[in-house]
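Notebook B, p. 112. Complex prediction, attempt 2.
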Amino acid sequence: MTRQNLSIALTGSGGSGVMTMGSMLLEAAAQAGWYGFMGRSAGPQIRGGEAAAMIRVSSEPIESPDDSFDLVLAIDPGSLDRFVAEIPLRPDSLLISDAEGGRRSSSLPDTPARVVDLPMKKMAKTVNGGRPNMIALGAVARIIGLPDTSLYSILEKTLKSKGPDALESSWTCVREGYAKAADLPAFGGPPINTGSTVERWNITGNEAAGLGAVRGGVRFVAAYPITPATEVLEWLAGALPRVGGVLVQAEDELASMNQVIGASFGGTPSLTATSGPGLALMTEAIGLAVCSEVPVVVLDVMRCGPSTGIATKSEQSDLNIATKGLHGDAPHLVLSPTSVTDCVFTTQWAVHLAESMQTAAIVLSDQSLGQTRAIVNRPADIAFMARRLVPEQFEEQYHRYAVGDSGVSPMAIPGQKGGQYTADGLEHNEAGAPSSLSEDHIAQLEKRQRKITGFDYGEHWAELEGDGETAVITWGSTTGPVREALSRLREQGEDIRLIAPRLLSPERPVEMAAALEGVKKLLVIEQSHSEQFYRYLRSAYDLPAATRVFNRPGPLPFRPNEIIQQLLKWSAAS
Amino acid sequence: MTASTACTLLQPKEYKSGVKPVWCPGCGDFGVLGSITKALSGMQIQPENAAVISGIGCSSRMPTYLNAYGFHGVHGRALALATGLKIARPDLTVIATGGDGDGFSIGGNHFLHTCRRNPDMTYIVMDNQVYGMTKGQASPTTDPNWEKGKLTPGGTGINPFQPLVIALASGANFIARSSSSDSNGTARIIMEAIKHPGFSMVQVLSPCVTFRPEQREWKNIVIPAPIDATSDPAKAARRLLTDEGLYTGILYRGERPAYQPALKSSIDNIEELDEEFRL
Ligand SMILES: Cc1ncc(C[n+]2csc(CCOP(=O)(O)OP(=O)(O)O)c2C)c(N)n1
Ligand code: SF4
Ligand SMILES: [Mg+2]
């Protein structure tokens, strides 16, 4: 039995090495010419907690988790219990466990799956320095049809720093696991295709966002560590110096945001990355960037809130604070990538937009995009780079905040003779002097609004597909499952439209009206408890009378079939 | 110096923007404004190469009144903003200005960490031991028995913050105190502060004549420190802990190298970054 795509979950307690094993498996899949991704789910412990690697591989590019898993391997049975809701299984799913692998599982007896035993722990003990996860790696590779030869070079690469003994014992374990799997039920994955000539990448959403920032021209980053945004910073800390940039670990998010504003005022495109709690601390200074018209980009890798919430898991619940969280009338940009690959594009675009319009841009990624490692086609190169309107020469009296037609006024950079002005969060007149006059306030409010509403965002404002009378509207990481649900329906002859706005602020009423033209039924899909996206849509756009919401909070991801079921139920009812 | 260069020398008044200050007549901050213009003129720093960064408060209005690049940001964050600017633009002379509330209360954390980090900039705090702008509440440097603060009618009862001691303990590289009434003396100290590498902390006793009229007396009671600046932190600590807050002059000159990560934008090898992702 072979399948075009396969979903595999690996669970283990902390230190059991499921993430290492998952990464190696993904890499082996990549070498076989497959696409795929690995999401991670972890408990709250820093070290020692249960972790799960959720992998899906396919012969085609994929972005969505499947409805259920084909194969689960629990290195120690007890580690399964925490993830029962996150790992749906079918009667024909295969669950590999190790009866003597450690803590007993309370969920195992109730599982619908076929359970088979693999004595990973015992087998590992027979190898000097052997580890159960490497036994597991060999076994899973065989079950899904990967050649063991590809594993050797991956082991070599991963264990380079650990010395020849570690490599030797791991390789022995992998081969033992591979041999032993001959006794286990097999289902091959997609056909091996090592001849693929398309350039493919192995990248996480967090790395992709960092790359987008650097490609967009960002050379200064200040930030304070926070899960799940830290990997963006770790990647940038290595990458920035290679292109002449700098990353500063600041004392807190108030500092990082203000440092970024200072560096950008000095002429360097700048970015900070954070998650919900950090974004909350930054909002005052984001308003300063808006009012003083200093371009900045804030990447928020969302996690479950409120407050500290569930720091390690995904949710789309910072939409309210990102779009409406600034005090006063503070028009700014809010964007969201729709896939791991799109993290490159959207972040790069955000830098370009912020620089072009001299304003603040918030990019809403989330834990599931950010911490997913994916095998994808090389993200396309895009032409736009940070380009700021800077005066070439100065009149007698330079007016930094001249109202002008577009609302974007030339921004002098320190060092430019004759351009001296004070950037101000205090309302000001065109020259930049503080003003409490209503006419100055109105003129500047209108200027700051006009420059972002009047901008030509082109086709990038949203991802649009299909033209049926029923549409699904979603955003961010839930776009993947929706896209897969709609493509399955399309195969059955159902044309359902997809609308996934990449630009959430400013609102695009004309474009949205065109996207909704002819739509009779609209299903809103979002991962927030209080229907933040639906309420945002209602306040911003005219929606069809027949609009329904399918929402739930994180951390459980949406799966394609449940979206299909919602649509079928609705069409059956009417 | 030839006659032609002499006539192009920038005079202190040319460092004023011409915007009329909102300060109360007699406010000490006028004196500090004068001292900053004298210092910039004294060093002939071109107005376009100076950046004056502040937060919020009466004293934080400073950048608007100067002919230089300026940033009037949010309350308490001047040092963070100035740090970002200095890293991006090491060529600029960066000066942060503000008040005791802005710097030591809401901005206290940045004060500690900027001293620690030691970027090459000068921080001028106009200390009036009160929140002037919000009309007279106690600040971190207010005497515990001061009873006129409307939110602390019986006095704060809590120990005042000692900015220069904290600056020293946190790693500031230059520490000085002056009085706004001594315009030339303050200008001289600011020049020294700018010249000294690393983070220079200048506390200027600058009376709030409206909410602390008794501070008008400061000009009569400040005394030039009877000793020379030391580079020995232990010695400096002993002095700072025992002085009554009225000694003026340069009190400490440290020798730590300034913090300056190299920022030099290039796009030459940007494609190299793709390599680690390629299969
Ligand atoms: C976040 C925030 N909180 C409170 C205020 C109100 N506020 C403005 S200035 C100030 C105190 C200023 O005191 P200080 O820094 O000593 O300056 P001074 O006016 O005495 O020169 C306060 C509390 C504000 N602007 N922003
Ligand atoms: S209130 Fe005090 S500090 Fe503010 S301007 Fe008036 S005198 Fe100066
Ligand atoms: Mg004060």
